[in-house]
Amino acid sequence: DTGVSQDPRHKITKRGQNVTFRCDPISEHNRLYWYRQTLGQGPEFLTYFQNEAQLEKSRLLSDRFSAERPKGSFSTLEIQRTEQGDSAMYLCASSSISNQPQHFGDGTRLSIL
Amino acid sequence: DQQVKQNSPSLSVQEGRISILNCDYTNSMFDYFLWYKKYPAEGPTFLISISSIKDKNEDGRFTVFLNKSAKHLSLHIVPSQPGDSAVYFCAANSNTGNQFYFGTGTSLTVIP
User: Fold this and answer.
1) Distance from CA of B43 to the nearest CA of A (A)
2) A104 and B105 in contact by Cβ < 8 A?
3) What is the pLDDT of residues A12-63, one digit of tens each?
4) Is A91 within 8 Å of B101 when comparing Cβ atoms?
5) B87 by DSSP, 3-state: which?
6) Minimal Cα–Cα distance from A38 to chain B, Å?
7) What is the pLDDT of residues B44-78, one digit of tens each?
8) Do B44 and A45 make contact, defined as CB atoms within 8 angstroms?
9) What's the pLDDT at A83?
10) Averaged pLDDT score across all residues of chain A
11) Closest residue of chain B to A91, computed from CA coordinates
12) I need a surface site. Which of A108, B19, B22, B111 has the fewest CB within 10 A?
């Protein structure tokens, strides 16, 4: 069990640029979640995959955001035309079945200049 | 709307004493509750969970209590240790949904 891995750990970019983050879940976990966390808040749900199927998306996930999990293994989260308000920690988590604890990665911190 | 609330942003406790962290929820459909601990620059780490069919779950120094009628859960840490100093998040989920809802966290400081 190598844990959930996220890359990069930090990303600094200019407003208007596109960014992509990667998440490698625990290998036997078929459920994968993306969250966003801002200062003083708890993680906020963005989207959820079961295997390669994206089954749920939060209303927080505007059309500038897209997530994929092409082969049911790793996942990517892309933000197009970044805005100042996108600055946050983006967390990925995985679990094996429902009503089981999610295991989180250490996140990608995005800073928009 | 914040469906899971942690009304105490911070808590300080002497080493060896009990730490009690509280969490309230509004959605009566929630049936699975978790506590996570988070250190700076790390992701949340799972600590302990409880299903709505129970009112108590214990794991070593950590005990979670669930009061369904009051829609309230609490985490007790006994005895508290300096290494317990971290931000603690409670989270909730319903069997019919995929989302986990998190509170805003309580920063615990255990004073040696």
Assistant:
1) 4
2) no
3) 999 999 999 999 999 989 999 999 999 989 999 999 999 999 998 998 888 9
4) no
5) strand
6) 10
7) 999 999 999 999 999 999 999 999 999 999 999 99
8) no
9) 95
10) 93
11) B43
12) B111
Cβ pairs bridging A and B (under 8 Å): 60
User: Under an 8 A CB cutoff, do A107 and B43 touch?
Assistant: yes
3-state secondary structure chain A: CCCCEEECCEEEECCCCCEEEEEECCCCCCEEEEEEECCCCCCEEEEEEECCEEEEECCCCCCCEEEECCCCCCEEEEECCCCHHHCEEEEEEEECCCCCCCEECCCEEEEEC
Alpha-carbon A30 to chain mean position: 15
The SS3 call for residue B84 is: helix
**CA-CA distance, B72 to A104, in Å (whole number)?**
25
Q: Coil, strand or helix: which one is B83? A: helix
- Determine the pLDDT at residue A60: 81
Is the bond preceding A8 in cis, omega lying within 30 degrees of 0?
A: yes
Q: Which residue of A has its CA nearest to B49?
A: A101
Contact B46 A105 (CB under 8 A): no
* Type of residue at A17: Q
Q: Which residue has the tokens 């290998």?
A: A27
Backbone angles phi, psi at B73, to 5 degrees: -135, 155
Q: Is B43 in contact with A101 (Cβ distance < 8 A)?
A: no
Residue of A nearest to B10 (CA): A40
